[in-house]
Amino acid sequence: MKKSILVLAVFLISLSTQAQSIFGQWTTVDDETGAKKSIVEIYKKDGKVFGKIVKIFDPAKQKNLCKKCKGEDYNKPILGLHLIKDMTKDGKYYKHGSIVDPQNGKVYDLRLAVTDEDKLQVRGYIGFLYSTQYWERVQ
Predict the structure, then answer these.
(1) Pairing, β 82-90 against β 93-100
(2) Domains and CATH numbers, the chain
(3) What is the pLDDT of residues 74-88, one digit of tens each?
């Protein structure tokens, strides 16, 4: 009996930990229209956190290139683009990395946090100014 209670407790703790994880796939939403734009997969590699676009919902935009991006991202396909780079955990947030907006090529400092099990707070900064989006976890 004690063993089955312990197993159940460990299972429930692992579920709650997984629900609060930033890792996995997230649906991005257009700020103005509320329409789904893309799916971004967030993963860890070599101790850093990255995110890449794995799906674009609008068929007309699926072959678009990042023409306004700079450096190594210039003219790369937006589908597959690593838009989140070099994030590290800092307390309850992931920080110290960046995100690029493929629409305008601008790079922002970034802070990520799970607000509840289905929402990811994505906050981009330039100096003290910031903009926040909420991405939805893909089920």
Answers:
(1) antiparallel
(2) 22-137 (2.40.128.520)
(3) 999 999 999 999 999
